[in-house]
Automatic annotation (TrEMBL):
This is Endonuclease/exonuclease/phosphatase domain-containing protein. It comes from Escallonia herrerae. GO terms for molecular function: 3'-5'-RNA exonuclease activity. InterPro entries: CCR4/nocturin_mRNA_transcr (IPR050410), Endo/exonu/phosph_ase_sf (IPR036691). It comes from the Eukaryota.
Amino acid sequence: MKYSIREDGGTEIRKRQKPYTKKCESEYCELWLKRNKSILDRLLELRSSIICLQEFWVANEELVGMYEKRLGDAGYVTYKLARTNNRGDGLLTAVQQNHFHVLNYRECLFNDIGDRVAQLFHVELLARPGSQSIELGIEILFVNTHLIFPHDSTCCFLRLQQVYKILQVIESYCHEYELPPVPIILCGDWNGSKKGNVCKFLLSQGFVSSYDFAHNYTGDGEETYEWVSHCNHRGDICAVDFIWLFNPNKSRKPLKQSFLEALIGNVNVRSHFGGHAIAYADHGGRSTRVWQSIIEV
């Protein structure tokens, strides 16, 4: 399962008084401790084989210790990864050791303006008849990530780049270890709806949304969903968290070709001072020019 838990430093407590004041939950130990104990209770109650958390408060040693202790006691091995530039939050992934054996783990640092990161895991499914673990030879790659929030139109372009980097890392890893086609699972807060070009890019690569499949959502007609994933920092109820699945028996377009098609779906290419500039149009009709030279493909 994946879970976006909101870093406590970013959770606001607003007081209706004059002068207007705004404080963060992180300033009140009893509040963030109570909320995270409740989150842990729910996670352990669900007993998922893999837990992917985003907006995890990695800078709080007491909080990290609480998660590692309780998840460890329940049989999970945990991996945390902070966002770059000391943002305070990041990712935490927990793998149930009775269900999966972690063969390898890699960290992906995007090193962009959003300071976003991703975790790549190579795991093998286990069977446990009695107390003995048996490796079944079924291997899976899965990713935990949190893409940049679309504050403006340029962020949508960055989200495409971030997903492209993730798929490049997966492709490179499979080539390095000469892996046969394996199932791939992408978990995270994608900060974009099914109608966006990031999701269309993943669909073009053969991925399917597990939530849409479970609710028999086809994407036709109005942008309505049978599910919502969270309430964002603006108070909007949205469906932007996905678990994407790739069946290794499906054929895939070349990654670079698929990325360029997604890019063209977002941009208008025009000449500018003898070179080429890319103008990205957002829903409001505004555009931001991004020089073609920054596109590394």
